[in-house]
Amino acid sequence: MSSEPAPLLALDLTGTFAFGLNGALTAVRAARLDVVGVVVLGMITALGGGFIRDVLMDSLPPATLLDWRYYTLALVGGLIAFALSRRLRRIETAIVVFDAIGLSAFAVIGASKAQDSGLGVVPSVLLGVVTAVGGGTIRDTLVGRIPSVLRSGLYAVPALVAAAMTVAAIEWGVYGLPAGLGAATACFLIRMLGVRFGLNAPEPPETRRSRGPRGTGA
Amino acid sequence: MSSEPAPLLALDLTGTFAFGLNGALTAVRAARLDVVGVVVLGMITALGGGFIRDVLMDSLPPATLLDWRYYTLALVGGLIAFALSRRLRRIETAIVVFDAIGLSAFAVIGASKAQDSGLGVVPSVLLGVVTAVGGGTIRDTLVGRIPSVLRSGLYAVPALVAAAMTVAAIEWGVYGLPAGLGAATACFLIRMLGVRFGLNAPEPPETRRSRGPRGTGA
Amino acid sequence: MSSEPAPLLALDLTGTFAFGLNGALTAVRAARLDVVGVVVLGMITALGGGFIRDVLMDSLPPATLLDWRYYTLALVGGLIAFALSRRLRRIETAIVVFDAIGLSAFAVIGASKAQDSGLGVVPSVLLGVVTAVGGGTIRDTLVGRIPSVLRSGLYAVPALVAAAMTVAAIEWGVYGLPAGLGAATACFLIRMLGVRFGLNAPEPPETRRSRGPRGTGA
Predict the structure, then answer these.
(1) Fewer Cβ atoms within 10 Å of its own Cβ: the N or the C terminal residue of chain B?
(2) Is residue B103 a contact partner of residue B132, using CB atoms and an 8 Å limit?
(3) What are the per-10-residue average pLDDT scores of chain A (218 residues)?
């Protein structure tokens, strides 16, 4: 009932750091902001999903605002990304990979915290997805892009899989580091396969007719 | 003090379903997203206004996250809209009508729940408006459009009328299904008349001078 | 521990009124909305930052929703801005100045309320910044612009300075009207100097190489 066991705390902090890097690199890439803008977008991306989760599950003030490790990691991630952005040859790849790491970690942690707070199975799975996609959705909205969660079917789906695996593991009494890492890994692999092969969920019939099945991209 | 009486619950669920359809059709129309994006936008549109209301009136976790009927209806609305989007000849009309239904239902329910929670007259009316326009505002922001509540004067105003009628009915002790339906119907009619005749509230003098009175559209 | 002393309440109300004017003028300038859209954007800008602060520090329902002075001032600011928008020759200047006033007042009040609610030093400073930049960020997002807090380094930084000065004054037991006004004045001056001289924080190396040091503007 208290907080995450240590290995899952590590997963949470990893996700925070990865989203801090990702948000800051997105800022450099999409909007070429100055150092403050880059770091602010990194912190919003890293902390946003957890804020929304904590608001919805009535766990306020949010843990990530009270615990210095979260906002410090988000800040450091943003600063590192700002400093390294010139040297990163494949900045797009880095953005996608860090985003997938954050997505995977937060889907597991979000679902697990929601279960911990006494929510039922479906709300817990939904909150896992919201935690995973929340920060990136705010990130994309702030820089004027349609959010990944709407553009790419294989963004919400892997988060849903990981959140469902986490809740199932808790319900069956087998939740721990192996189960958490397994769920996160499943999410990460599905997401990266989707990106690699340009997979998407089915498009609406209207789109298919008028623009062909691969029309929207991801 | 507990929950809505059955007929008003029906109004709430109707609004949720209508916004689920509306959000999903907007996704098909505006951004041609895949099935996941379409359903996600439907659910966000359907549940977003109630989430904001429940956060502001400190009723967390939100009722719509805990009660399976809400998120299921939002999901089903999204799936139906996705499946039917090809057959819908007048998709724009459907979008506008479903939006007006959701707006009307949520203005009444939002104001009534706020009064129920002990808020005063003005905050209750404001929360009714916020509930009504909240989901659509998130929807428009996510697909990169200026929200209806800003673009069209006759969007916030009918919601305000319905919320004020609801709060007045409660204050006068005559609130029930007839009053709730009456307020919702008033909102729906004002909104649809505004859409039909392209009515808008007055524009700023500067705009009128430089672009003529009908310059901005709705 | 209760509410702000009278002079600080005056600072809070001043910020609310300034942001109401600013949001409404932004609506006239950026999107040429009708009177409802203009007033709605003014109210969202004026009340948004405080809403986010009150949600994150678990002080719900938000004070600005319960206290008629806040929403009335926000509404009146929006109406005045709508009425005067034609006569204002230098509307851009007015927008920037009102924004700086709101930013300065809210950074102080936000940090002070967060400290009051028992949060630590760093979370209080962060919440001061969030209060200051929150309303403007929602405003910019709704009209489709990249938020000031991301575009201009000297937007978050002056808010951070004022919030830090406020928290320091509270910690040292010297917080009161002079300290609050001093912190707000410092924020205002830094912000206006940044606008006047086009100052920005350093840009990422990549940008500097490809577009020159002043490439992004503010």
Answers:
(1) N
(2) yes
(3) 66 95 92 88 96 94 93 95 84 91 97 94 96 96 93 90 97 92 96 83 55 38
Q: What 8-state DSSP symbol labels residue A31?
A: I
Structure tokens at A16: 């925070």
Q: How far apart are CA A166 and CA A174, in angstroms?
A: 9
- Cβ-Cβ contacts under 8 Å, B62 against chain A: 56
Query: Which residue shows structure tokens 């070429």?
Result: A32
Q: Which of C109, C213, C113, C67 is nearest to C153 (CA)?
A: C213
Q: Is residue B93 part of a domain?
A: yes
Q: Copy the structure tokens of residue A63.
A: 């843990």
At residue B122, the pLDDT reads 96
- Averaged pLDDT of chain B: 88
Closest CA to B106 of B168, B51, B30: B51
Residue of B nearest to A121 (CA): B66
Tell how far CA C127 is from the center of its chain: 12
DSSP string, A88-123: -TTHHHHHHHHHHHHHHHHHHHHHHHHHHTT--HHH
Tens of pLDDT, residue by residue, chain B (218 residues): 345 667 789 999 999 999 999 999 999 988 778 899 999 999 999 999 999 999 999 999 999 999 999 999 999 999 999 998 878 778 888 999 999 999 999 999 999 999 999 999 999 999 999 999 999 999 999 999 999 999 887 899 999 999 999 999 999 999 988 999 999 999 999 999 988 887 666 666 654 444 433 333 33
Structural domain that includes position C179: 6-198
- Name the 3-class secondary structure at B218: coil
Query: Which string of b and e fits B180-201 if b means at least 16 CB within 10 Å?
Result: bbebbebbbebbbebbeeeebb
Amino acid at residue number A215 = G
Residue C126 placed within a domain = yes
Given CA atoms A31, C50, A137, B103 in this order, what sign does their dihedral have?
negative
Q: For residue range A147-181, list pLDDT tens digits in order.
A: 999 988 789 999 999 999 999 999 999 998 899 99
All residues at 6 or more sequence positions from C204 whose CB lies less than 8 Å from its CB, including other chains? A28, A32, A33, A34, A35, A38, A82, A85, A86
As a whole number of angstroms, the distance between CA C167 and CA C112 comes to 7
Residue B39 Cα, gap to closest chain A Cα (Å): 9
In a domain, A105, yes or no: yes
Give C167-176 pLDDT, tens digit per residue: 999 999 999 8
Question: What is the domain count for chain A?
Answer: 1
| Domain annotation covers residue A106 | yes
| A57, A145, A147 member nearest B61 (Cβ) | A57
